[in-house]
Amino acid sequence: METVTLVTFKVKGLFSPIKMALKMAPSQEQIYKKILGIMKDHNISGEVQFKRLVQDKGKKMYIYHIGETKCVVMIEKLQKVIEFQEIE
Q1: Distance, first Cα to last Cα, the chain
Q2: Which among 44, 45, 63, 82 is least surrounded, fewest beta carbons within 10 Å?
Q3: Is 78 in contact with 3 (CB distance < 8 Å)?
Q4: CA 17, 49, 32, 76: dihedral to nearest 10 degrees?
Q5: Do β-strands 48-56 and 59-66 pair in parallel, antiparallel, or remain unpaired?
Q6: For the chain, which residues make up each domain, given as ranges?
Q7: Distance between CA 69 and CA 39 in Å, rounded?
Q8: Distance between CA 87 and CA 2 in Å, rounded?
Q9: Which residues make Cβ contacts (< 8 Å) with residue 18, sequence separation at least 6?
Q10: Alpha carbon distance 71, 9 (integer Å)
Q11: Is the pLDDT confidence value at 83 over 70?
Q12: Mapping DSSP to helix (H, G, I), strand (E, B) and coil, where does residue 30 land?
């Protein structure tokens, strides 16, 4: 069965988390670029600093600080259960 990677960005001060589904897990450089995009879109300023990586049973949690703001990036591998077919 195929898998999909769910990436969730939780930034303190934002109303809801930002979620993305990808075929492959993103690199740290891709995560960093997405954080910069979130900062630009939501007018967040500060220096992005990587603090630590926590791994547990196929899940990863990257912890960043954007100035004084905490940003948590969760990466989970999920199995694809449903495939949609085109309606002709």
Answers
A1: 26
A2: 82
A3: yes
A4: -50
A5: antiparallel
A6: 3-79
A7: 11
A8: 22
A9: 8, 9, 11, 38
A10: 7
A11: no
A12: helix
